[in-house]
Amino acid sequence: MRRWLAALLLTLAAPVAAADAPLLTSHLRIHDPFVVAEQGSRTYWLFSKNDPAVTGDSRIGIMAYASSDLAHWQKPKLVFALPKDSWANDGGWAPEVHRWKGRYYLFATFHNDKAAIPASGKRPNYRRATLLAVSDRVDGPYQLIHKGEPITGPDAMTLDGSLYVDPAGKPWMVYAHEWLQMGVGTMEALPLTDDLSPAGKPQLLFRANEADWVIGQKQPEGDMGYVTDGPELYRTKTGTLLMLWSSWGKGGYVQAQARSKSGTLAGPWEQLGPLIMQDSGHGMLFHAFDGKLMLVLHRPFKRAIAKFYEMRDAGDRLEVVREAVELDGEAYPTHGCPMGVSDARC
Predict the structure, then answer these.
(1) Which residues contact 138 (CB under 8 A, 6 or more apart)?
(2) Burial class (CB in 10 A: 0-12, 13-18, 19+), 241
């Protein structure tokens, strides 16, 4: 009788939840997803570049969806709008929101292809960098800090800045230095002060072509481009320092991981290979309200949606437990994988 009553109550409650959050995960066209699990309100916030077709706001900026279960989402709202007098005029890529010193900080990449910077290779280069904004609320509104100027150098073409706080409590921004400028993209780390201003020179962590799974992309200029994309740092239960990152591999976009042998940003960094292939990438980790470690990424690269995976902290690396198909209804085909390779890897 109790089971029947519980099932009835769940059925009656479901339409209310769906009415409040009518969008399914499979409806959301998202690149570079980032999730904040806000404990106070038991709300998941999913951040992405603003899409005027769904927010109804044509401004360049960042939008956020809200959900209580990662499967049903409210219509997104604009949480940050790029000021009209900014040096940038496009972008909104790779938004991340981090809690720091009691406030929420937004990191997002913007650019202006008319603002030329010195080129070291065969392609013209222009201003592209991560901008920082702050709010007292996770859902904004966010306001630019540092007068809207990047904290990386004015002649550096960079993207995908991510906040990392080291064991001493010192903040860093880890970011990708563009292959467009470097030829071979790099991962770099910039030490910061408590107000998230530069505290020194950037440090090279590794180059894209140090990973044997990365495939260079032939460019119209005749050279090869090796991409670094989407860094995020994670400290495991045993103290191992890992980095999630993406590039192009066999069959498309790849979500991979690297490990610091020293346990610090200084490395050296060893490449552990792909976590998830299937044209998937730019992932980030969060803990669900039930305590499970989750990964969200986008797949496929074009017309992507957010894909969720349950993960395992194995101490010296991350492992995929399963694709959470109950959240979006898509089960990736398992046929065609090599013997001994899981469907998450092939």
Answers:
(1) 36, 38, 45, 97, 104
(2) buried
* Interatomic CA distance for residues 226 and 249, integer angstroms: 10
Q: What is the pLDDT of residues 258-296, one digit of tens each?
A: 999 999 999 999 999 999 999 999 999 999 999 999 999
Q: What is the pLDDT of residues 163-221, one digit of tens each?
A: 999 999 999 999 999 999 999 999 999 999 999 999 999 999 999 999 999 999 888 88
> What is the token pair recorded at 134?
């702050």
Half-sphere exposure of 79 (CA within 13 A, CB side): 30
* Cβ count within 10 A of residue 332: 14
Cα–Cα distance for residue pair 206/192, rounded to 1 Å: 20
3-state secondary structure of 74: coil
Contact between 282 and 31 under an 8 Å Cβ cutoff? The reply is: yes
- Of 285, 281, 325, 283, the C-alpha closest to 301 is 281
Burial of 310 (0-12, 13-18, 19+ CB in 10 A): middle
Task: Determine contact, residues 72/63, Cβ cutoff 8 Å.
Answer: no
State both tokens at 253. 């976009």
Using CB atoms within 10 A of its CB, is residue 311 exposed (0-12), middle (13-18) or buried (19+)?
buried
Q: Per DSSP, what are the bridge partners of residue 295? A: 285, 309
Structural contact between residues 28 and 306, judged by C-beta atoms closer than 8 angstroms: yes
Roughly how many angstroms between the first and final C-alpha of the chain, as a whole number?
Answer: 46
What 3-state DSSP class applies to 100?
strand
Alpha carbon 200 to its chain centroid, in Å, reads: 25
Ordered domains of the chain (ranges, CATH): 23-327 (2.115.10.20)
Q: Residue 19: which residues within 8 A CB-CB, separation 6 or more?
A: none
In DSSP terms, 224 is beta-bridged to 218
With beta carbons less than 8 A apart as the criterion, state whether 155 and 118 touch.
yes
